[in-house]
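Loading example: each entry is read as two labelled lines plus one structure line.
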Amino acid sequence: MMLHRRRFLQIAAAGAGALWVSPHMALAAVETDRRFIFIIQRGAADGLDIVRPFGDPAFDGLRGRIAGDAAASIKLDGTFSLHPSLAEIGKMYAANQALFVHAVASPYRDRSHFDGQNVLETGGSQPYQMKDGWLNRLVSLMPHEKDEAIAFAPTVPMALRGPTPVTSYAPSSLPDATDDLMARVGMLYQNDPQLHPLWSEALEAKGLANGTGPKQDPAGLGQLAARFLTKDNGPRIAMIETEGWDTHFAQAPRLTARLKALDAMVAAMRDGLGPLWAKTTVLVATEFGRTVAVNGTGGTDHGTASVAMLIGGAVKGGRVVADWPGLSHLYEERDLKPTMALDGLIAGAAGETFALDAEKVANGLFGEGAGRPASGLIRS
Amino acid sequence: MSLQPASLSAAAVALNRFGLGARPDDEAPGDPKAWLTGQFGRFQVRPTGFDALPDAGEIVEGYRDRLRAMRRDARQSGADGVDKDELKSLQQDFRKEVQALYRTAVNARAESALVTDAPFVERLVHFWSNHFCVSADNPQTTAFAGAFERDAIRPHVLGRFHDMLVAVEQHPAMLIYLNQATSVGPDSPVAERVAERNPKRKLGLNENLGRETMELHTLGVRSGYTQADVTEYSRALTGWTIGGFGPGPAGNDSPDAFEFRPGLHEPGARTILGKRYGEPGERQALAVLADFAASPHTADHVAEKLARHFAGDTPPPALVARLSATFVKSGGDLPTIYRALIDAPEPWAPEPLKFKTPWEWTISALRGTGRRDLDGINVAGIMNQLGQPVWRPRSPAGWDDIAASWAAPDALLRRVDLAQRLARPAAVREDARALGPRLMPGSLSPATAEQVARAESPTSALALLLVSPDFLRR
């Protein structure tokens, strides 16, 4: 049975003390055992090069030039193969722990990175329509709002911004301030409505990090995320930003480097989370895809539909989910046509991960009238 | 949101919100508006640090020459491609050289912000450099990043928007960063020649610069242009490149300067936003740019960003409208627009309107502690730690100019760590209790004054002042 937070509060408010030992409560506690990590790919990652539709008759002619040796790709099924740089994620796919969704897009249909990322992160249907991020709203749906979410960056990305307090942390090589200074800064910020909550969050994250910051290479970041997420009193939801996906030129070597980094980061998370990996959902998504045709400089320009990934032990993986539109009928005669809604995918994945009512998650994250949430993505 | 009671005097607003932060020996300006406009005559276009930068084009050209020689030698000796180790070490040397140049250039920028007598104009340089940003994400763009601010932004900060725009779009840093240097007209003579020789090798457009010019530099997103306009403008831009880059014979090998190469230019007239551009060659894109610069959409876009920078994260619509009208009326004359800004009431609001970005905070802290030279401080390293590496916003949209992007838990912690480091040597010279009221004349909040006075040591006191709510905002 799915227990929505509001429902849970209503039951608790009814005053029945026995509820604290009831199965419902146990279920609620199990819910927060789950881990949810959002990895954003800033710059419009090329879904067609990441999960390659080699079975589409038009693919080789359009993309063979930058896809390189077809035999090197990791075969996923009769239609799709995976970019060879995603070796570890390929293994997770083979172990039914990775799922790829193709020809997927947010509601955004123009080609500005910044508007596209705003829609992806706020969950609005238009850029700048919503003022906070869907990941922040997801935290507010959780049983314990406090300390649930962290951004692995010095600052907080849009998707995590909003009224629910979240923290941020990234390893720094600055020498630590003295305890005396730290205490006095705390006093100085005590009455400042903006700085006081930020300072409290910062101190908690610093405590969790324990002062032993690994280097901020992709694997190090994956390990760091795992360290936070495995703490008993640590966050359950995390966001990591990746950049460099805007491959207007020399796509083959540049995308290879980005994908290797992503692969190493996810593998480090899996290794660091240990048994908790089985309860983990990692969502990888980008603001939009890239042109189907290769441009004049061995790259691709801004497009529309792309690929999203769900990875983790909790994911019902080993599948490519797509209502494949084909490469011979393109959106505006240049881009992969979107046939799946990213909003619905996110709502379904988040809802199933935390055993929340999927419709309510969809409405809460993407507004009333959001599309139907996808289902059957995550193991209960 | 209500902030701690702090009420800024006009002098404090001029020094800190318009300027880059007071220095210990700065007099509080008696006539703040005149102090600001007076800076137009004192601005130094090419300060010594910038002037002394090693030549980026020479470094890039040297690297490319060595690379070419290595390939030629390999061909002549019948080897199967160049030696991998040799190539790696060549690339490493190049990256090192470029990183050294980058650090020197960042320090030149910081030094110029410390010694300037025109801090308001220096702030505007930083504003425009961010509006028209490049991001030093690859060695070749990195090499030119300092030169970009020096040569495309600084000479025009007190000129016309249109002239800055052309200088920006024709600068090697921008042409490399947004891939224009290698964009080719699909029906251009060079593309046809290449296709004849090798039908598999197709040269063509790269619409990166075309799109970002319209979206970020001029008209602004959602201002009514379409994908077709972007593609057409990108066609008009073909041929805009630099020496040594792109296919076809170059005029010269130095990537130091803009070069129009007719062989790369897509032939024919273009139609952009309903207007036909029949101009030949380089003049075609120049004509389009002139129209973009004069568009009321551009005026609105620029007005909004300026208003956000000086009057708050949610820019007051009345101020935006006034600045936009001034932009249109003056034909994009920047000093006229700055005067309208200074004359407007909104940027003089007594409550702090902005949370300082890491760059603003660092510069104001260095100035506030009386530094006039960097003396071993590596500003590029500091800015990396604070999350705002100079000229490296990793996106052509530049750094955000709102508090939500900078006021964050870990970011705050880092400022405190750094404040302690900066305060340690400075506390010998400056008594924080006396310094506070000088940096924020008539404006320091009693709570900050009290905590500073109570601190256990001069270093602690100075560090506290630097991270006080008063000093984190402007």
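Chain A touches chain B through 61 residues (CB under 8 Å).
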